[in-house]
Amino acid sequence: VSGERRSFLIIQALNQYYDILSQNEQSSVPRLGYSTAKVSFVLQISPEGKIGHIIDIRSKDKKPKPREITVPKQDARANAIAPYFLCENVKYIFGVELIPGKEREKTLKNASKIITILEDSGTDIIAITKRSKECFEAFKSLQHSILDSLVNEEATGLLAFLDSWSPEYFLTHAKILDYKDDILGGAMLIFEYNGKYLHELFEIRRKWEDHISNNKDGEQLLAQCLVSGNIEAISQTHNVIKNVANAQSAGARLVSFNSPSFESYGRSQSLNAPIGTTAEFKYTTVLNHLLADPKNRLRVADSTVVFWAETSNKTYEDLTLSLFNPPFSYEESDE
Fold it and tell me: How would DSSP label each residue in 61-80?
C-alpha cells in the first residue's frame, strides 16, 4: 500500500474513532466547532462591564500548568491577526504586549510601531503597539459580530467591558497587577459571568455555532472529500498536531504539501489532497486528543507512536499500555 493510501486509511480510522467518542457523553473530545486550549486565568465580568476578579485556574505545582478546557474552535493563525471567540491572550483582550530584552533596542529604533510605552524596566518593555491595538480591535469586532443580537446580561456585560476598555488601563488595574507577568507571558484567558464560563452558556454557544455554520464555506473550494466522499468545503490548511517528537515547535501536519514538486493539477497546499472541513476537524481533533494523553502515546526511539481501540471503553487501551509498558516488573528470585 502506498504511503498516501496508508495516510488516508489512518485518517478514516481517526474519523471513525472521533464518531465513537463524540457519542459518549463522558468523553472530553471537543465537538464540531470547538477545540481544546490551555487556559490559565478567568476574567470575572460584572453587569457594568468591569473586571471583578481574575481567577488563577492553573495547577498548584511548583511550576503551575494551564488547565485544558474545551473552547470555541481555535485555528492555527501563524502571524496573522485572527482573533478567537471568548478565549484569547493579552494582545487581543487588553491590547498590550511585552517586548522582551532581546527585541527592546530594535523596537525602540523603530518607534513608528509603538503607540505608547506603559513601562520600561530597562530590560523589557510593556507597550501598546500598532499590532496589539489592531489585535484588540479585531477581537472586539468579532465578539460584537457574534453577540450583538443577543440580549442577555452575560453578552451585554462582556461587550460593555470591551467598549469601555482602553489598553492604557492595563497597569492601573489592581487585579491585573497581581498576575501581570504571567498574563504578559502569553497566558490564555476566558470570561466568567455569575459563576459560569461565557463560552459554555447555551445561548452563546448557539450564536457561535450559527456563526461558524454561516461562515464555514466562504471562498473555499467545494469538492469531493477523499475521506467521507461528500461534496463540501475543502480545508486548505489543516490544524497542527501537537506532542509529536522531533516536529516543529508549532506542531506537525499529517497532510501538507510544501513544495511545488509534490503538487498536481494546479492544486496547492492541502487542496492537492482534498479533505473536507468536517473530516479535517475530526481527525486533527481526535489525534490531538490522543496525543495529549500519555496513556495513548509511546516514544519508540525517535518516533511517537499513538494507539487506540475502536470503543469508548478505556479497558482495552489500558491493557495494551500495560503490555507495552508494564507498571511493574518481576525480579529474579534466588530460590
Answer: SSS--PEEEEEE-----TTS
C-alpha cell at 86: 471568548
Which residue type, as a one-letter code, is found at position 184?
L
CB atoms near residue 158 (< 10 Å): 21
Tell me if 163 sits within 8 A of 49, measured CB to CB: yes
d(CA 228, CA 222): 14
pLDDT in tens, 326-335: 766 555 545 4
Phi, psi of 54 (to 5 degrees): -120, 120
Greatest Cα pair distance, the chain, in angstroms, is 80
The CA distance from 90 to 184, in Å, is 6
Q: Where are the alpha helices (DSSP H) in 100-218?
A: 101-109, 130-147, 153-164, 174-178, 180-184, 202-215
The mean-pLDDT minimum among 54-58, 108-112, 255-259, 262-266 falls in: 262-266
And the C-alpha cell for 311?
A: 470503543
Report the share of the chain in percent with pLDDT over 70: 90
Mean pLDDT to the nearest integer, 182-197? 95
Is the C-alpha dihedral spanning 326, 328, 332, 335 positive or negative?
negative
pLDDT of 144 strictly over 90: yes
Confidence of residue 2 (pLDDT cuts 50, 70, 90): very low
Q: How far apart are CA 76 and CA 269, in angstroms?
A: 15
DSSP track, 231-271: EEEBPSSPPPB-S-TTS-TT-B-SS---SGGG-BTTB-GGG
Banded model confidence at residue 65, pLDDT cuts 50, 70, 90? very high
Residues 6+ apart with CB under 8 A from 247: 241
Location of C-alpha cell 461534496: 231
Distance, in Å, from the CA atom of 51 to the CA atom of 65, rounded to the nearest integer, reads 23
Scored b (16 or more CB within 10 A) or e, 238-273 reads: bbbbbbbeeeeeebbbbbebeeeeeeeeebebbbeb
Lowest mean pLDDT among 35-44, 146-155, 229-238: 229-238
